[in-house]
Specification:
- This protein is an alpha/beta fold.
- The chain has a single domain, classed as 3-Layer(aba) Sandwich (Rossmann fold), CATH 3.40.50.
- 34% of the residues lie in helices and 16% in strands.
- It has a five-stranded parallel sheet.
- The model has no long low-confidence stretch (mean pLDDT 93).
Length: 134
């Protein structure tokens, strides 16, 4: 049995300290989507054996959680993997049960558009929903 921690704040300062986290924990960090914000301290990032993002290109522009660890030399962009590459087996995920894993989600707009399109198509097919003029 392992823990999952989800951070979803607008904090500019870390709210999660790496010393608090038990071995084997997975972290989903979905807040701090600007370079000037960070929900995770550098100890948290340093302890993670696997660090995944939706898009490395976007993470370079928005992942405030990575700014300090990069500056301190605890993190390199070559350590960061795109989640899709892990899913298809191009890179390994967790290797040991005690490994900490991190998914820094910044969201990709096209994913939101695709999901919204699917929801709309299903609503039309099932005859549910209401059109609102705006």
């Amino acid at each position: 049995k392992k823990d999952i921690i989800i951070t979803a704040t607008t904090s500019r300062e870390p709210v999660l300290t790496g010393h608090w986290i038990a071995e084997g924990t997975h972290i989903n960090a979905i807040g701090s989507n600007f370079l000037g914000k960070a929900e995770l301290d550098s100890v948290t990032v340093r302890r993670c054996a696997v660090i995944a993002v939706d898009s490395k290109e976007q993470a370079r522009l928005e992942a405030g959680d990575f700014q300090q660890p990069l500056e301190e030399g605890f993190l390199r962009w070559t350590d960061v993997r795109e989640l899709g590459q892990i899913i298809v087996g191009r890179y390994p995920g967790r290797k040991h049960p005690q490994d900490l894993t991190l998914f820094k989600s910044l969201g990709i707009a096209i994913e939101d558009v695709v999901v919204a399109g699917q929801v709309y198509a299903r609503a039309q097919a099932e005859g549910v929903g209401k059109i609102i003029d705006w």
